Structures are given as structure tokens and as C-alpha cells.
Amino acid sequence: MASSSSPITQVSQTQQMPVGLQPHLVARLLLDLRGQRFSVDRETIMNLPESVLLCLFPNGLVLSRNSAVLDAMDGDEDEEIYGVDFDPQCFHFVLDYFKKSGESFYGVSDQASAPFHAQQQWIDAQGDPMLIQQNPLLSKQAIIVLREELEYFAIPPAVEDTKVDKNGVADERLLDLKRQCGLKLLEKRNIFTALQRNVNKENNMAEQHLIDMLCVSGFDRDDTWGFRAVEPNRCCLSSIALVQLKTGITHEATTEANPTGVVVDQSQMTTAQKLLLFWRKPARKCWWDGIEVDLGTAESPRVVKLWARRVWTLELSLVRVMSPSPFVGETKLTLL
Hints:
Helices cover 30% and strands 27% of the residues. By secondary structure, it is of the alpha+beta class.
């Protein structure tokens, strides 16, 4: 049963219920993401990061139904479509990354050569049954999830002929200026530039430590967002970056002294374990950033000042064993 803080809840199978109202776990969900449909199994939904689930289902989602209700629906549970206000390409990006990460770690069709099997043998050789509970990074694929919500406010130059009416509704020129600002921000894909600028301005060593920790754990300082897009009809950009956590576990050739070939760098593992603090407990940081964008050309610059409110969400996600086909998109999507 999911914890009370989880955006997903399901009825306990052991809960006493009247006869004929026993809970039935939903095997597959049909999601409509802004007009594009996905058929996703329950296992895949439960594997997604908490921060992504909160965006998909801000009001929660019940993954079980009473059998009497299903009988009334003729047992066809896939007929119910959940409308979700979330970018379908971003959803596809997350599903695809988790699928490939799970396959590379656990293997496809139970491949004995997958890292998971060698690490499981190494764990068994240690002779400590509590080892997995003490350190789940030894037996699960860990992914760092970093999201940014950037809401921007454009300050038109005094020479611009932009107006708002008495109700505060912007005219077409101002709307076009805001759209152009969003496209310019879309080009700024480097992950750490804005936070490093804030560190340099405020001399905030805690933020510098955050950057250093992320770069030691899997990111590079010049990394870019894996997915970045302007939200429709809003002065807002959504970005997400996913990276496999560096645990310090390497796989070398097997020897008589090390029949599993598994080598654990304890220093790197200690650093990786610090990120377990963000497992199922997303952490958020918000700050304001003043920037300028040039909407003109080299011969005729058109500089617009922006106030940007950035909200970062950091989370660690542990991927469980997934089925070979975790999702089926009813509409073909192009990955960015």
C-alpha cells in the first residue's frame, strides 16, 4: 500500500470490505495527455518519480476499484480515460529513459549477464542478509531526477508600443513579445548556469555544494536539460533532466579471487548514499533570477529584461524490475 504522502493511493487487499465490494487492482491506465493517448500498465506508473506523479495526478489516483463497480462496467476497466494536463513528449521522454535504464541494469528476458545478477551474487557472497535493506543502491538502478519550472515576467522596453486593457489583458504586441522571450529562454538549455549565477551573486555555499554533489553523482557541469519546452498559453518553461546515479560499482573480469567481477568504490558509494535522502522525498528550491534576452539582431538589438522565478525539484528514484513493454503510445511521438 502506498504511503499517505504518495500522490497515488490504493485500497489494501487485507482491508475488510462487504462481500461483492472486494478491491480489484487496475492493471492498465488509459491516459490522455493533451490529446495524445498512452496505455500504461500499473507497474510502470508506480515506478515513476514522486515529483512526476504529482504533476500527472495532482488530486491523487486510486489504483483499485470495487468489483461491483467493474461488474457495472462489464469488466472493461480500460474504457475509463484519465485526462492529464502534462506534456506528452516529456512523458514519453521519462518513460523511455526509465525503460532503457531498467533494461540495461536488470537485463531483457532475464539475461544472466546483466549487472543486477552479478551484484546479486556479490551480495549473497557477503553473507549479510540485511545488506540490501541497509543499502538499496546495491540491488536497484538509481536515477537522479531534476526538474525546473521557470515562470518569467517580461518588462517591455519603454520604446515598445505595448498595452494592456482595463482588465489587465495584454494586446497582441505584448503577447508576441512574451512568446519571443519564451523561445529565447528555450535556447538556454544548460542546467547549472542560472544556479551558478545565483551562487556567484549571493556567495551561497550551500547551493555550490548542491552543484558539486550533483556533478560528482552523475551530472556534468556543462550538461543540458534532457527535455525542455514552453508550456502552452503560459509564460512558463518546464524542464527535466535524468541521469543514472554513480554508485561506485564497476564490473570487471571475473577472477578466482573475485568470481562476480563486482568492485565497489566505498568513497563514491558513500557520496551516492547521501542522495537517498531524496528517495520518495522530493526537495524543492525556489529563487528569483534577473536576466536579459535580445530579441533583435546584431545590427538592431532589442533587449528585454525578464524576472524569472525558478523552482527546482530534486529526487532520487529507484527503478524496480519492469515488464518488457512498459507502455504503448497510441500516438507516435518524436523525442526531443
